[in-house]
Structures are given as C-alpha cells and as structure tokens.
Amino acid sequence: MAPTPDQLTFTDPVTRYPKVEPPKQDQPEPGLDADLTPQVDHGESTYRGTGRLEGRRALVTGADSGIGAAVAIAFAREGANVAMSFLPEEEEDARHVASVIEESGRTAVLIPGDISDSAFCRELVAQAVDGLGGLDILVNNAGRQIFCEKLEDLSDEQFDNTFKTNVYAMFWITKAALPHLPAGSSIINTTSIEAYMPAPILIDYATTKASINAFTKGLAQQLAPRGIRVNGVAPGPIWTPLQVTEGQPKEKLPEFGSSTPLGRAGQPAELAPAYVFLASPESSYVMGETLNVNGGMPSP
Ligand code: NAD
Ligand code: MG
Fold this sequence. Notes:
Elements: E1 57-61, H1 66-77, E2 81-86, H2 91-103, E3 108-112, H3 118-132, E4 137-140, H4 156-177, E5 186-190, H5 203-223, E6 229-235, H6 272-279, E7 290-293
Parallel strand pairs: 1-2, 1-4, 2-3, 4-5, 5-6, 6-7
Helix pairs in contact: 1-2, 1-6, 3-4, 4-5
C-alpha cells in the first residue's frame, strides 16, 4: 500500500482530496466534527512536522474542530505546546485533538468557555499563560456563521452575538494577551473570503470578517515596532461543522465548494501550513498580510 501523502508530498491539488459532496445534514450549534459526514482531515496522519515552532507556546481559539483543530495539530507537530479554547459542548472533539497533540509529544491545555463574554476572554488568556508557562502565538480563529435570507429577519440578538464572537472576542483576547507576548510573537486572525465577496445571506458574518481584516492591518502597524507580527488567513469554502449548523442552507451542502476554480471544497488540513508559516520566524518580514487559502477565488 502506498504511504499516506503528507502536506509536503508532490500531488495534484485537484485530486489531493476528493470532492466532499456532503449529504444534507443538520446539527445544533456549535456542531461536532465527530458527527460530520463525510469526516474531515485535520492532519492527524497527513501533517508532518519540520521543527518550525520548537518550544513555542500557542493559544488557538476554536481548536476543537475544523480549521482550528488542524492548526492545533500542525503547531504540535512543529514543536509547540497548545492551549485550546472551545465551547463546553465540544468536549468530545477537543479531547480527540488533545490526544493527537499528546501523541505528538506535546502538551495540550484544554480551556472550555464562551468567548462572547469579556470576563471569560481574560480568564482564558490567564489560564493559557499559566498552563503553557507563557505565550508567543495567538490564533483568533473561533467564529460563528448563521445564514439569514432577509435583513428584516436578522435579529438584533444574532447580529450582536456574531459580532461578540467574531470581533469583540478577538479584541478582548488580544488585549489580554499583549502584556505576555515577547518580541518575536505572532498573532494570526482567521478572516474569510466573505470579507471581500459577501454572500447576500451572510450579512452579519461577512461584516465581522471585513472588520477582522481592518483590525489585523491596523494592529500590524501598531505592533510592528514591538516585534509582534499580526497577520490573517482568509479561508474559502472549507468542510467543517460551521457549515452544517445553519452556516449554509441545507440544500446547498451537496455542492459546497464546487464553484471554486479548483472545483472542490478545502479540507482543514490544507489551511494549517498557512498558519504555521505566519507563526514561524521564517515570516519575519510579513505583517498586515492576509493569506488567502480558497481554491483560487480572486481576492484583493
Ligand atoms: P468550526 O465550527 O470547526 O470552528 C468554529 C469554532 O468556533 C467552534 O469549534 C467553536 O469552538 C468556536 N466558537 C464559536 N462560538 C464560540 C463561543 N461563543 N465561545 C467559544 N468558542 C466559540 O468551523 P471552522 O470552519 O473551522 O471555523 C473556524 C474559523 O474559520 C471561523 O472564524 C470561520 O469564520 C472561519 N472560516 C471558515 C470557513 C469555512 O468554509 N469553513 C471559511 C472562511 C472562514
Ligand atoms: Mg467545534
């Protein structure tokens, strides 16, 4: 049997992963990777470390599933210890990722809680610093996406909660983390293709993603003289629990990602190398940048 390809194996990106063509499915928020059909690749057997984050200490929000899980696993394979933020309902997914981190010989610090609460955000950073003995990588990746066809039906409550989770939490967590981050540290925010190509049914979500871009580019300039780099990663359509918890209308799921130039949705494992690059010292002259990982959709 041929060995499993890893992220460094020369392959055709069109066929690197099969089209997901997911069946219609629904999960209550926040959703579990464990219950997703088909299952996703977080890099468990496809991400090979090359020593790029040796001894580093990372806090990753939304690290239980999807993109955050792939980032947490890749960071551990590269030599980092990882504090994982997730919601209490996601314990099952979080335990799986933690076990992969530990099998990779690194430490996982599990910190369940709701980041739409400012007090918890401060507590999260304190627990991460305590559990890791410091902090030099922060990945603001947690996010919420609930589609809504008509603005009149978009509740004030949803608008507020999408902003609290996607924008305010990034502000609260970054603010709390800053006093701990030494020169050389890296902050990476997960934005989206939605920041530039907002879907008509994702007004609140897309607006938060444009805010994340502005926050990233402004803060990058403010922190550059302190030796702290701030960058973003903008995923395109990636197969994760976000999509089946009202992120998309159910009838759209079977064709999810097929309209990209590459013709398929991405896997979380395909995002991880972008975060590793931005976290590692090799990107020392890269700041205020957004790496678009989206299957070829034109982006500014
Ligand atoms: P995901 O559901 O696996 O991850 C989102 C995570 O956010 C959840 O696992 C959860 O732990 C966390 N979260 C949500 N609300 C929270 C709260 N109140 N408190 C604490 N944690 C909370 O889905 P994903 O697709 O991997 O999403 C990760 C990021 O990628 C999000 O910012 C999302 O907007 C972004 N993104 C995803 C896609 C895509 O197609 N999947 C595309 C562009 C951007
Ligand atoms: Mg999750």
